[in-house]
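Running this now, will post back.
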Amino acid sequence: MYNEQMYALGSKRSTIREIFEYAKQRADEIGAENVFDFSIGNPSVPAPKAVDECIRRLLDQTPSVELHGYTSAQGDRGVREKIAANFAKRFGVSLTADDLYMTCGAAASLTITLRALTNAGDEFLVFAPYFPEYRVFVEATGASLRVLPCDPNTLQPDLESLEKALNPRVKGVLINSPNNPSGVVYGAETLQKLAEILRKKSAEYGAPIYWISDEPYRELVYDTKTVVGCPMAYYDDTVVCYSYSKSLSMPGERIGYIAISPTATDNRALYAAVCGAGRSLGYVCAPALFQRVAAECDGLTADLGVYKRNRDLLYNALTEYGFKCVYPDGAFYLFVQAAEGSAKAFCERAKKQELLFVAGDDFGCEGYVRIAYCVPTEKIERALPRFQALAEEYGLRKK
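Update: finished.
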């Protein structure tokens, strides 16, 4: 017989994918221009020209067998040296090629890292709101996931709840900043306090509690006053899981990395465990061509000005119409309070206006919906009358 747990995962898509598929079906029925799909975080801004130019150059100048052949399981050494050197320069952390493991995007980075760390009975902590696949990834290792609350006014992590929840079974705390689904960025003070709590509890238990930092939106910060700190600068036992999907607008190419702090406890043993976890999960090596593209284009971004413009347009309009949401400093999502008690009911009513959102229940925050504004600006402009009509249905007042 097949595995019942895997059947359950495969027979029902995630909520986000369900809405994405509904949007395609609805587009076939009434025309794509009449459907306003804000459900999925698929970058709408083209990759930087340097990405395409790099691909062409590699195809023209690199022998095919070399370009498309296997690399080392942990990634081509030259690639890792370039990325590690750039990481060290940007964040002031002495990362080397031997601390870096190339992956098929952030999802692979997370699943490999969790597999490398987990023993029977382990527990991982995450703050709401959180990306729903975290639960899938954690529970697939046999560990358990506990969701901690956030501050309801700011959606920043509730660090008092973290201190209370930590216990000797906790192997790691999973952090995502800039955050999906809220767009909230954890500031330097938050990171410093988090590090202090983890150091204190690690010393108390006599074993490291790992800080796993999921960073696919690291570069997507729109206000110069907002500073995204590097967790490794605050805490030794840190593992960074990164993806180029959002920064370089190439989510379909599946390329990213795991970076292990050079000062982590038993750094070499942890790196070997990561290599072993990748092997056990069947990752022979990350895509060879895009390893090289990532190394050449590391630190570049797509045109983030488009996302900033979209954020400002949508946030200002929705708050003017009477909707409530926390101002997002990064990523490309608004996390909006549903205008009625049930976020799912709110989403259903929005469908009558052909507006498609994701209910926040799966993100660990009931009463909210996620709106992804990584869409053409023109789509937002055409959708605004629909948002206004929805607000009027609920009797929301303008400011």
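The chain is about 45% helix and 15% strand. More later if anyone needs it.
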